[in-house]
Amino acid sequence: MLIGLVSPTRTINYELLRYAARQAPALVVDCANAADPHRLYPEFPHETLGQIYVIELELLYKFRDILKNAPRYAARVRARTVVVTTCDYLFHYQDPEENRDIHHHCWELMRGLGQTYDVRVGILAHSEHLEFAQKYCDRVESQIINPNLRIFETSPNHRMTESRKPRFDQLEIRN
After folding, report:
1. From CA 63, how far away is CA 36, in angstroms rounded?
2. Number of other residues whose CB lies within 10 A of the CB of residue 62
3. Contact 26, 51 (CB under 8 A)
4. Quick check: helix, strand or coil at residue 22?
């Protein structure tokens, strides 16, 4: 299943890493230069942190190449989940149309990966990837905290009180 997790800030990447630790063994495709499992110590033991396999990348084309091979990588490490951090800041060529085509292909690859694995993708709320997520994900979840009302919003039409705070299968968003 492919699930997009929307956040207004890049802290979603840290929470995705925490989710990967809870679901270890896990494969993390780190597009945001944010996945350092050792930041999670002592919350998680070293044995768990050793089961988080991180692939770091900085190029849009490399992202697509990694996703093409992700099923093989995930099988090799016996991953229970695959996490993809926010991919808004990958280096690319200055051709917006070509970049959009590659992003489109990446989302197709992630949807295919989601047919076999639990895949969680971080999406910044102001990102063009929100449109892709709404098209390709089985589910898109967001958690926007309004500190003035102390209400947690899960979508524009649905609100829950703090005592019934929604969670992304134990994924906690902190601003």
Report:
1. 18
2. 15
3. yes
4. helix
Total tally of structural domains belonging to the chain: 1
Q: Is residue 150 part of a domain?
A: no
**How far apart are the C-alpha atoms of 26 and 31, rounded to whole Å?**
16
Rounded CA-CA distance 26/144 in Å is 26
pLDDT tens track, the chain, 175 positions: 999 999 999 999 999 999 999 999 999 999 999 988 888 888 899 999 999 999 999 999 999 999 999 999 999 999 999 999 999 999 988 899 999 999 999 999 999 999 999 999 999 999 999 999 999 999 999 865 444 433 334 444 333 333 333 444 444 444 4
Global confidence as pTM: 0.80
Contact yes or no for 27/121 (Cβ under 8 A)? no
| 160 located within any domain | no
Q: Which domain holds residue 27?
A: 2-140
Q: Where on the phi/psi map is residue 94: left (φ > 0), alpha (ψ -120 to 50), or beta?
A: alpha
Q: What is d(CA 128, CA 120) in angstroms, rounded to the nearest whole number?
A: 17
- CATH number of the domain where residue 22 is located: 3.40.50.300
**Beta-bridge partners for 163:** none
